[in-house]
UniProtKB/TrEMBL annotation:
It comes from Pseudomonas syringae pv. pisi str. 1704B. PANTHER family: UBIQUINONE BIOSYNTHESIS ACCESSORY FACTOR UBIK. This is Uncharacterized protein. GO terms for cellular component: cytosol. Pfam families: BMFP. It comes from the Bacteria. InterPro entries: UbiK.
Amino acid sequence: MLAPKAFLDALSGHASRLFNGETPVPRSEFETQFKALLQSGFSKLDLVSREEFDSQMAVLARTRRPP
C-alpha cells in the first residue's frame, strides 16, 4: 500500500510531466493518460467501493441494535 503523501507526490510528478512535457499533449490524450494514472494510483491504496462501505455500515448497525 502506498502512503497518501507518496501517492500525491507521485501523482503530481506524473501530472507535471504530462502537462509540462517537451511536446504538448492534446487535451483528450492528457485526460486519458491522467485517468489511467489515477486508476493506477488508486489501485495501490487500500480503498473500498461505496457499495461495500454501505453494506458494512448496515451490518454494523444491525450488530448495535438491542436484542
